[in-house]
Amino acid sequence: MNNTALSGKYAAYPEYRNSEVDWIEKLPAHWQESKLRYKFSFGKGLTITKANLTDKGVPCVNYGEVHSKYGFEIDPAIDPLKCVSDNYIKSSSNSLLFKGDLVFADTSEDIEGSGNFTQLTSDETVFAGYHTIIARPNDRKCYRFYAYLLDSLEIRTQIRHAVKGVKVFSVTQAILRGINIWLPALEERKTIASFLDHETAKIDTLIEKQQQLIKLLKEKRQAVISHAVTKGISNKEQPNVPMRDSGVEWLGEVPEHWIVRRLKHTSKLQSGIPKGKDLTGKVSISVPMLRVANVQDGYLNLNDVHKMDIIPEQLERFSLQKGDVLMNEGGDNDKLGRGAVWQNEIEPCIHQNHVFAIRPYSIEPEWLDLVTRTSYAKFHFYRVAKQSTNLASISSTNIKETPLVIPPAKERDEIIKYVNRKVDAFDKAEEKGAAQIALLQERRTALISAAVTGKIDVRNWVMPTPSSTNGATNDR
Predict the structure, then answer these.
(1) Does residue 466 surpass a pLDDT of 80?
(2) What is the pTM of this model?
(3) Alpha carbons within 13 A on the beta-carbon side of 409
(4) Where are the domains of the chain?
Protein backbone atom coordinates (compact mmCIF):
# COMPACT_ATOMS: atom_id res chain seq x y z
CA MET A 1 0.00 0.00 0.00
CA ASN A 2 1.74 3.18 -1.18
CA ASN A 3 1.01 6.83 -0.52
CA THR A 4 -0.33 7.26 -4.07
CA ALA A 5 -3.19 4.88 -3.26
CA LEU A 6 -3.86 6.72 -0.01
CA SER A 7 -3.83 10.13 -1.66
CA GLY A 8 -6.57 8.90 -3.99
CA LYS A 9 -8.79 8.22 -0.98
CA TYR A 10 -7.89 11.21 1.19
CA ALA A 11 -7.44 14.87 0.24
CA ALA A 12 -4.03 16.56 0.21
CA TYR A 13 -3.20 19.85 1.92
CA PRO A 14 -3.78 22.91 -0.30
CA GLU A 15 -0.21 24.18 0.05
CA TYR A 16 3.19 22.55 0.69
CA ARG A 17 6.77 23.75 1.13
CA ASN A 18 10.14 22.04 0.74
CA SER A 19 11.30 20.20 3.84
CA GLU A 20 14.74 20.51 5.39
CA VAL A 21 14.41 17.03 6.95
CA ASP A 22 16.04 14.07 5.22
CA TRP A 23 13.61 11.43 3.89
CA ILE A 24 10.78 13.99 3.62
CA GLU A 25 10.52 15.98 0.42
CA LYS A 26 7.65 18.30 1.31
CA LEU A 27 5.55 19.29 4.34
CA PRO A 28 2.31 21.24 4.66
CA ALA A 29 3.22 24.93 4.47
CA HIS A 30 2.06 25.77 8.01
CA TRP A 31 3.80 22.83 9.80
CA GLN A 32 6.85 23.59 11.95
CA GLU A 33 10.11 21.66 12.11
CA SER A 34 11.83 20.91 15.40
CA LYS A 35 13.90 18.31 17.22
CA LEU A 36 12.79 15.77 19.77
CA ARG A 37 14.92 17.40 22.49
CA TYR A 38 12.69 20.50 22.42
CA LYS A 39 9.45 18.57 22.88
CA PHE A 40 10.51 15.78 25.26
CA SER A 41 12.50 15.20 28.40
CA PHE A 42 14.45 11.98 28.77
CA GLY A 43 15.35 9.52 31.50
CA LYS A 44 16.44 5.92 32.00
CA GLY A 45 14.71 2.89 33.42
CA LEU A 46 15.61 1.09 36.63
CA THR A 47 19.12 -0.31 36.88
CA ILE A 48 17.99 -3.83 37.62
CA THR A 49 18.15 -7.34 36.19
CA LYS A 50 15.59 -10.12 35.77
CA ALA A 51 16.52 -11.32 39.24
CA ASN A 52 14.89 -8.19 40.72
CA LEU A 53 11.51 -9.00 39.20
CA THR A 54 8.65 -10.52 41.18
CA ASP A 55 5.05 -11.52 40.55
CA LYS A 56 3.65 -8.88 42.90
CA GLY A 57 4.46 -5.23 43.52
CA VAL A 58 4.71 -2.31 41.09
CA PRO A 59 4.35 -3.31 37.39
CA CYS A 60 7.52 -2.81 35.37
CA VAL A 61 7.98 -2.30 31.61
CA ASN A 62 11.29 -3.94 30.77
CA TYR A 63 13.27 -4.35 27.54
CA GLY A 64 11.42 -7.60 26.80
CA GLU A 65 7.98 -5.99 26.85
CA VAL A 66 9.13 -3.14 24.59
CA HIS A 67 11.11 -5.35 22.26
CA SER A 68 8.73 -8.18 21.51
CA LYS A 69 5.63 -8.63 23.61
CA TYR A 70 3.24 -5.70 23.52
CA GLY A 71 4.64 -3.23 21.01
CA PHE A 72 2.96 0.07 20.37
CA GLU A 73 1.06 0.57 23.64
CA ILE A 74 0.85 -1.04 27.03
CA ASP A 75 -1.70 -1.15 29.84
CA PRO A 76 -0.92 -3.17 33.00
CA ALA A 77 -4.63 -3.93 33.38
CA ILE A 78 -4.52 -5.81 30.06
CA ASP A 79 -0.90 -6.79 29.57
CA PRO A 80 0.62 -8.99 32.30
CA LEU A 81 3.85 -7.47 33.59
CA LYS A 82 6.48 -8.58 36.03
CA CYS A 83 6.84 -6.32 39.07
CA VAL A 84 9.40 -4.76 41.38
CA SER A 85 9.20 -4.02 45.09
CA ASP A 86 7.35 -0.93 46.37
CA ASN A 87 10.69 0.12 47.88
CA TYR A 88 11.77 1.43 44.46
CA ILE A 89 9.10 4.18 44.49
CA LYS A 90 11.04 6.48 46.82
CA SER A 91 14.55 5.58 45.68
CA SER A 92 13.90 5.55 41.93
CA SER A 93 11.02 7.96 41.36
CA ASN A 94 12.63 9.26 38.13
CA SER A 95 11.93 5.86 36.57
CA LEU A 96 8.18 6.04 37.30
CA LEU A 97 6.03 6.40 34.20
CA PHE A 98 3.05 8.64 33.57
CA LYS A 99 0.28 8.17 31.05
CA GLY A 100 1.62 9.07 27.61
CA ASP A 101 5.27 8.37 28.42
CA LEU A 102 7.19 6.44 25.78
CA VAL A 103 9.55 3.63 26.74
CA PHE A 104 12.27 2.75 24.21
CA ALA A 105 14.37 -0.40 24.16
CA ASP A 106 17.98 0.74 24.31
CA THR A 107 19.27 -2.14 22.18
CA SER A 108 18.06 -4.32 19.35
CA GLU A 109 19.34 -7.55 17.86
CA ASP A 110 18.53 -6.36 14.33
CA ILE A 111 18.49 -2.98 12.63
CA GLU A 112 14.75 -3.20 11.96
CA GLY A 113 14.07 -3.23 15.70
CA SER A 114 16.00 -0.02 16.34
CA GLY A 115 13.59 2.55 17.73
CA ASN A 116 11.17 0.00 19.19
CA PHE A 117 9.04 1.60 21.87
CA THR A 118 5.78 1.25 23.74
CA GLN A 119 3.55 3.92 25.26
CA LEU A 120 1.87 3.74 28.65
CA THR A 121 -1.88 4.25 28.13
CA SER A 122 -2.85 3.79 31.77
CA ASP A 123 -2.93 5.97 34.89
CA GLU A 124 -1.57 3.11 37.01
CA THR A 125 1.77 3.38 38.80
CA VAL A 126 4.29 1.71 36.50
CA PHE A 127 8.10 1.64 36.32
CA ALA A 128 10.36 1.62 33.29
CA GLY A 129 12.71 -1.33 33.80
CA TYR A 130 16.09 -2.55 32.64
CA HIS A 131 17.61 -1.56 29.28
CA THR A 132 15.01 1.14 28.61
CA ILE A 133 14.95 4.87 27.86
CA ILE A 134 12.03 7.05 28.94
CA ALA A 135 10.82 9.84 26.62
CA ARG A 136 8.31 12.19 28.29
CA PRO A 137 6.28 14.57 26.07
CA ASN A 138 6.24 18.10 27.45
CA ASP A 139 2.68 18.57 26.18
CA ARG A 140 0.53 15.60 27.18
CA LYS A 141 -2.54 16.88 25.37
CA CYS A 142 -1.28 15.30 22.18
CA TYR A 143 0.75 12.34 23.46
CA ARG A 144 -0.96 9.96 21.05
CA PHE A 145 0.20 12.01 18.06
CA TYR A 146 3.79 11.67 19.24
CA ALA A 147 3.41 7.90 19.43
CA TYR A 148 2.28 7.74 15.81
CA LEU A 149 4.95 10.23 14.73
CA LEU A 150 7.73 8.16 16.32
CA ASP A 151 6.30 4.97 14.84
CA SER A 152 6.37 6.43 11.32
CA LEU A 153 8.73 5.04 8.71
CA GLU A 154 10.43 8.44 8.40
CA ILE A 155 11.38 8.63 12.10
CA ARG A 156 12.34 4.95 12.19
CA THR A 157 14.65 5.54 9.23
CA GLN A 158 16.36 8.42 11.05
CA ILE A 159 16.97 6.23 14.10
CA ARG A 160 18.29 3.32 12.04
CA HIS A 161 20.80 5.60 10.35
CA ALA A 162 21.95 6.94 13.74
CA VAL A 163 22.39 3.69 15.71
CA LYS A 164 25.75 2.02 15.99
CA GLY A 165 26.45 -1.68 16.19
CA VAL A 166 26.93 -4.89 14.26
CA LYS A 167 25.22 -7.74 16.11
CA VAL A 168 23.58 -5.49 18.73
CA PHE A 169 22.27 -2.06 17.77
CA SER A 170 22.23 0.57 20.51
CA VAL A 171 19.82 3.50 20.83
CA THR A 172 20.94 6.27 23.20
CA GLN A 173 19.29 9.33 24.68
CA ALA A 174 21.63 11.45 22.55
CA ILE A 175 20.35 9.76 19.38
CA LEU A 176 16.74 10.32 20.37
CA ARG A 177 17.32 13.96 21.33
CA GLY A 178 18.80 14.66 17.91
CA ILE A 179 15.89 13.24 15.91
CA ASN A 180 14.28 15.77 13.54
CA ILE A 181 10.49 16.05 13.88
CA TRP A 182 7.74 18.15 12.31
CA LEU A 183 4.53 19.34 13.94
CA PRO A 184 1.17 20.77 12.93
CA ALA A 185 -0.83 22.94 15.36
CA LEU A 186 -2.03 21.37 18.61
CA GLU A 187 -5.67 20.82 17.55
CA GLU A 188 -4.50 19.34 14.27
CA ARG A 189 -2.27 16.89 16.14
CA LYS A 190 -5.27 15.78 18.20
CA THR A 191 -7.36 15.24 15.07
CA ILE A 192 -4.61 13.25 13.36
CA ALA A 193 -4.20 11.07 16.47
CA SER A 194 -7.97 10.45 16.72
CA PHE A 195 -8.12 9.61 13.02
CA LEU A 196 -5.24 7.14 13.34
CA ASP A 197 -6.64 5.62 16.54
CA HIS A 198 -9.87 4.89 14.69
CA GLU A 199 -8.40 3.71 11.38
CA THR A 200 -5.58 1.61 12.82
CA ALA A 201 -8.07 -0.02 15.22
CA LYS A 202 -10.04 -1.26 12.20
CA ILE A 203 -6.87 -2.56 10.58
CA ASP A 204 -5.73 -4.18 13.85
CA THR A 205 -9.10 -5.92 14.14
CA LEU A 206 -8.67 -7.41 10.67
CA ILE A 207 -5.10 -8.45 11.49
CA GLU A 208 -6.26 -10.10 14.71
CA LYS A 209 -8.92 -12.05 12.82
CA GLN A 210 -6.29 -13.37 10.42
CA GLN A 211 -4.01 -14.25 13.33
CA GLN A 212 -6.84 -16.14 15.01
CA LEU A 213 -7.50 -17.97 11.76
CA ILE A 214 -3.84 -18.99 11.51
CA LYS A 215 -3.93 -20.13 15.14
CA LEU A 216 -7.00 -22.28 14.42
CA LEU A 217 -5.30 -23.73 11.35
CA LYS A 218 -2.27 -24.69 13.45
CA GLU A 219 -4.53 -26.35 16.03
CA LYS A 220 -6.42 -28.18 13.31
CA ARG A 221 -3.14 -29.35 11.74
CA GLN A 222 -2.02 -30.64 15.13
CA ALA A 223 -5.32 -32.49 15.61
CA VAL A 224 -5.21 -34.06 12.16
CA ILE A 225 -1.63 -35.27 12.64
CA SER A 226 -2.32 -36.61 16.14
CA HIS A 227 -5.50 -38.46 15.18
CA ALA A 228 -4.11 -40.01 11.99
CA VAL A 229 -0.84 -41.12 13.59
CA THR A 230 -2.38 -42.57 16.78
CA LYS A 231 -5.79 -43.82 15.56
CA GLY A 232 -5.29 -44.37 11.84
CA ILE A 233 -7.45 -43.22 8.93
CA SER A 234 -10.79 -44.77 8.12
CA ASN A 235 -11.20 -46.34 4.70
CA LYS A 236 -13.47 -48.82 2.95
CA GLU A 237 -11.23 -51.75 3.83
CA GLN A 238 -11.10 -50.91 7.54
CA PRO A 239 -14.07 -48.71 8.48
CA ASN A 240 -14.14 -49.71 12.15
CA VAL A 241 -10.76 -50.96 13.33
CA PRO A 242 -10.75 -52.80 16.70
CA MET A 243 -8.86 -50.83 19.35
CA ARG A 244 -6.77 -51.84 22.37
CA ASP A 245 -5.14 -50.10 25.29
CA SER A 246 -1.69 -48.88 24.28
CA GLY A 247 -0.27 -49.29 27.77
CA VAL A 248 0.73 -45.63 27.73
CA GLU A 249 -1.54 -43.56 29.96
CA TRP A 250 -1.42 -40.32 27.94
CA LEU A 251 -1.73 -42.13 24.61
CA GLY A 252 -4.89 -44.16 25.27
CA GLU A 253 -6.20 -46.68 22.77
CA VAL A 254 -4.54 -47.54 19.45
CA PRO A 255 -5.61 -49.90 16.63
CA GLU A 256 -5.36 -53.49 17.82
CA HIS A 257 -2.86 -54.59 15.16
CA TRP A 258 -0.42 -51.70 15.81
CA ILE A 259 2.59 -52.04 18.07
CA VAL A 260 4.03 -49.59 20.58
CA ARG A 261 7.81 -49.55 20.79
CA ARG A 262 10.34 -47.28 22.47
CA LEU A 263 12.32 -45.02 20.16
CA LYS A 264 15.58 -46.64 21.25
CA HIS A 265 14.44 -49.92 19.66
CA THR A 266 13.85 -48.30 16.27
CA SER A 267 16.60 -45.71 15.92
CA LYS A 268 20.06 -44.60 16.94
CA LEU A 269 20.56 -41.20 18.55
CA GLN A 270 23.56 -39.04 17.77
CA SER A 271 24.46 -36.12 20.02
CA GLY A 272 25.88 -32.95 18.51
CA ILE A 273 29.18 -31.21 19.00
CA PRO A 274 29.59 -28.67 21.82
CA LYS A 275 30.70 -25.15 20.98
CA GLY A 276 33.61 -23.28 22.50
CA LYS A 277 36.42 -25.83 22.11
CA ASP A 278 39.88 -24.24 22.05
CA LEU A 279 41.56 -25.27 18.79
CA THR A 280 44.63 -23.06 19.18
CA GLY A 281 47.60 -24.67 17.47
CA LYS A 282 45.48 -27.41 15.88
CA VAL A 283 44.58 -27.97 12.23
CA SER A 284 40.90 -27.10 11.80
CA ILE A 285 38.23 -26.79 9.14
CA SER A 286 35.14 -24.56 9.03
CA VAL A 287 31.87 -26.47 8.55
CA PRO A 288 28.17 -25.40 8.43
CA MET A 289 26.46 -26.19 11.73
CA LEU A 290 22.76 -26.45 12.60
CA ARG A 291 21.50 -24.72 15.75
CA VAL A 292 18.17 -24.85 17.61
CA ALA A 293 17.03 -21.79 15.63
CA ASN A 294 17.41 -23.74 12.37
CA VAL A 295 15.17 -26.61 13.51
CA GLN A 296 11.50 -25.66 13.45
CA ASP A 297 8.33 -27.71 13.97
CA GLY A 298 8.14 -29.84 10.84
CA TYR A 299 10.57 -27.85 8.72
CA LEU A 300 14.09 -26.40 8.64
CA ASN A 301 14.94 -22.70 8.49
CA LEU A 302 18.27 -22.55 6.67
CA ASN A 303 18.33 -18.80 6.00
CA ASP A 304 21.02 -18.25 8.63
CA VAL A 305 23.31 -21.25 9.08
CA HIS A 306 26.40 -20.55 11.18
CA LYS A 307 29.77 -22.20 10.70
CA MET A 308 31.96 -23.88 13.30
CA ASP A 309 35.65 -24.71 13.39
CA ILE A 310 36.38 -28.37 14.13
CA ILE A 311 39.32 -30.71 13.71
CA PRO A 312 39.00 -32.81 10.50
CA GLU A 313 38.63 -36.07 12.47
CA GLN A 314 35.35 -34.80 13.94
CA LEU A 315 33.66 -34.29 10.60
CA GLU A 316 32.61 -37.91 10.07
CA ARG A 317 31.55 -38.32 13.71
CA PHE A 318 29.20 -35.33 13.74
CA SER A 319 28.09 -35.09 10.09
CA LEU A 320 24.39 -35.31 9.36
CA GLN A 321 23.12 -38.01 7.03
CA LYS A 322 20.13 -37.89 4.72
CA GLY A 323 17.09 -39.18 6.61
CA ASP A 324 18.24 -38.06 10.04
CA VAL A 325 15.37 -36.75 12.14
CA LEU A 326 16.54 -33.60 13.89
CA MET A 327 15.12 -32.82 17.31
CA ASN A 328 15.78 -29.91 19.64
CA GLU A 329 17.03 -30.54 23.14
CA GLY A 330 15.08 -27.60 24.54
CA GLY A 331 14.46 -23.90 24.88
CA ASP A 332 10.93 -22.69 25.47
CA ASN A 333 8.42 -25.46 26.19
CA ASP A 334 7.08 -25.32 22.63
CA LYS A 335 10.57 -26.07 21.29
CA LEU A 336 10.98 -29.36 23.17
CA GLY A 337 11.45 -32.21 20.71
CA ARG A 338 10.64 -29.90 17.83
CA GLY A 339 12.16 -31.24 14.64
CA ALA A 340 12.22 -32.11 10.98
CA VAL A 341 13.79 -34.58 8.53
CA TRP A 342 17.23 -33.74 7.13
CA GLN A 343 17.45 -34.17 3.34
CA ASN A 344 21.10 -33.23 2.83
CA GLU A 345 20.15 -29.63 2.06
CA ILE A 346 23.76 -28.67 2.95
CA GLU A 347 26.64 -31.08 2.59
CA PRO A 348 28.67 -31.52 4.68
CA CYS A 349 26.85 -30.21 7.74
CA ILE A 350 27.21 -30.90 11.45
CA HIS A 351 24.88 -30.17 14.36
CA GLN A 352 25.30 -28.42 17.69
CA ASN A 353 24.96 -30.40 20.92
CA HIS A 354 21.53 -28.84 21.59
CA VAL A 355 20.19 -30.60 18.48
CA PHE A 356 19.85 -34.39 18.42
CA ALA A 357 20.14 -36.37 15.17
CA ILE A 358 18.01 -39.53 15.30
CA ARG A 359 18.78 -42.18 12.69
CA PRO A 360 15.87 -44.64 12.25
CA TYR A 361 16.70 -48.17 11.04
CA SER A 362 13.34 -49.98 11.27
CA ILE A 363 10.85 -47.22 10.42
CA GLU A 364 10.78 -44.36 7.93
CA PRO A 365 12.23 -41.01 9.02
CA GLU A 366 8.97 -39.42 7.87
CA TRP A 367 6.99 -41.63 10.26
CA LEU A 368 9.23 -40.81 13.21
CA ASP A 369 8.94 -37.13 12.32
CA LEU A 370 5.12 -37.34 12.30
CA VAL A 371 5.02 -39.20 15.61
CA THR A 372 7.15 -36.58 17.34
CA ARG A 373 4.71 -33.88 16.14
CA THR A 374 1.68 -35.52 17.79
CA SER A 375 0.11 -34.16 20.96
CA TYR A 376 0.95 -37.28 22.96
CA ALA A 377 4.66 -37.10 22.01
CA LYS A 378 4.82 -33.41 22.88
CA PHE A 379 3.22 -34.21 26.24
CA HIS A 380 5.84 -36.91 26.83
CA PHE A 381 8.64 -34.43 26.10
CA TYR A 382 7.09 -31.90 28.46
CA ARG A 383 6.54 -34.35 31.35
CA VAL A 384 10.11 -35.70 31.30
CA ALA A 385 11.83 -32.39 30.60
CA LYS A 386 14.02 -30.62 33.10
CA GLN A 387 12.35 -27.29 33.83
CA SER A 388 14.12 -24.06 34.73
CA THR A 389 13.13 -20.37 34.57
CA ASN A 390 11.33 -19.92 31.22
CA LEU A 391 13.31 -22.82 29.74
CA ALA A 392 13.14 -26.59 29.51
CA SER A 393 15.46 -29.31 28.23
CA ILE A 394 15.14 -32.99 27.48
CA SER A 395 17.94 -35.54 27.77
CA SER A 396 18.97 -38.06 25.15
CA THR A 397 17.92 -40.82 27.58
CA ASN A 398 14.36 -39.49 27.76
CA ILE A 399 14.26 -39.03 23.99
CA LYS A 400 15.18 -42.69 23.60
CA GLU A 401 12.32 -43.69 25.92
CA THR A 402 9.68 -41.96 23.79
CA PRO A 403 6.90 -44.49 23.01
CA LEU A 404 6.23 -44.77 19.28
CA VAL A 405 3.04 -46.07 17.69
CA ILE A 406 3.95 -48.23 14.69
CA PRO A 407 1.37 -49.53 12.19
CA PRO A 408 2.32 -52.00 9.43
CA ALA A 409 4.50 -50.53 6.68
CA LYS A 410 1.68 -50.24 4.11
CA GLU A 411 -0.51 -48.39 6.60
CA ARG A 412 2.36 -46.08 7.58
CA ASP A 413 2.79 -45.15 3.94
CA GLU A 414 -0.94 -44.41 3.54
CA ILE A 415 -1.02 -42.27 6.68
CA ILE A 416 2.12 -40.33 5.68
CA LYS A 417 0.61 -39.52 2.27
CA TYR A 418 -2.76 -38.61 3.83
CA VAL A 419 -1.20 -36.31 6.43
CA ASN A 420 1.07 -34.66 3.85
CA ARG A 421 -1.96 -33.80 1.69
CA LYS A 422 -3.77 -32.32 4.68
CA VAL A 423 -0.71 -30.41 5.91
CA ASP A 424 -0.12 -28.97 2.42
CA ALA A 425 -3.68 -27.61 2.44
CA PHE A 426 -3.18 -26.08 5.89
CA ASP A 427 0.15 -24.57 4.79
CA LYS A 428 -1.45 -22.90 1.77
CA ALA A 429 -4.25 -21.48 3.93
CA GLU A 430 -1.71 -20.19 6.45
CA GLU A 431 0.40 -18.62 3.70
CA LYS A 432 -2.70 -16.85 2.39
CA GLY A 433 -3.48 -15.55 5.89
CA ALA A 434 0.13 -14.44 6.43
CA ALA A 435 0.09 -12.59 3.09
CA GLN A 436 -3.12 -10.83 4.10
CA ILE A 437 -1.55 -9.80 7.42
CA ALA A 438 1.50 -8.44 5.58
CA LEU A 439 -0.74 -6.35 3.31
CA LEU A 440 -2.71 -5.01 6.27
CA GLN A 441 0.47 -4.15 8.16
CA GLU A 442 1.81 -2.41 5.05
CA ARG A 443 -1.39 -0.38 4.83
CA ARG A 444 -1.16 0.50 8.54
CA THR A 445 2.43 1.71 8.15
CA ALA A 446 1.60 3.72 5.03
CA LEU A 447 -1.47 5.30 6.65
CA ILE A 448 0.48 6.41 9.74
CA SER A 449 3.30 7.88 7.66
CA ALA A 450 0.89 9.67 5.32
CA ALA A 451 -1.04 11.23 8.20
CA VAL A 452 1.90 12.35 10.34
CA THR A 453 3.89 13.75 7.41
CA GLY A 454 0.97 15.69 5.94
CA LYS A 455 0.60 13.72 2.72
CA ILE A 456 -3.11 13.50 3.53
CA ASP A 457 -5.28 16.19 5.13
CA VAL A 458 -7.60 14.84 7.83
CA ARG A 459 -8.42 18.17 9.53
CA ASN A 460 -12.09 17.81 8.56
CA TRP A 461 -12.31 14.18 9.64
CA VAL A 462 -15.15 13.44 12.05
CA MET A 463 -15.38 10.35 14.24
CA PRO A 464 -18.00 8.05 12.66
CA THR A 465 -21.03 7.20 14.76
CA PRO A 466 -21.14 3.65 16.23
CA SER A 467 -23.80 2.60 13.71
CA SER A 468 -21.49 3.44 10.79
CA THR A 469 -18.36 1.66 11.99
CA ASN A 470 -19.65 -1.88 11.29
CA GLY A 471 -18.70 -2.90 14.80
CA ALA A 472 -14.96 -2.29 14.38
CA THR A 473 -13.50 -1.42 17.76
CA ASN A 474 -10.09 -1.30 19.34
CA ASP A 475 -9.95 -3.58 22.36
CA ARG A 476 -6.76 -1.93 23.46
Answers:
(1) no
(2) 0.81
(3) 3
(4) 1-31+184-213+417-476, 34-182, 233-406
**Model pLDDT for residues 272-315, shown as the tens digit of each residue:** 998 877 788 888 899 999 998 898 888 899 998 999 999 998 99
CB 73 within 8 A of CB 118: yes
Rounded to whole angstroms, the Cα distance separating 443 from 17 reads 26
Q: Which CATH class is domain 34-182?
A: alpha beta
Mind listing the pLDDT tens digit for each residue in 207-257?
Answer: 999 999 999 999 999 999 999 999 998 755 556 789 999 998 888 999 999
Quote the pLDDT of residue 344: 93
CATH top-level class of 233-406:
alpha beta
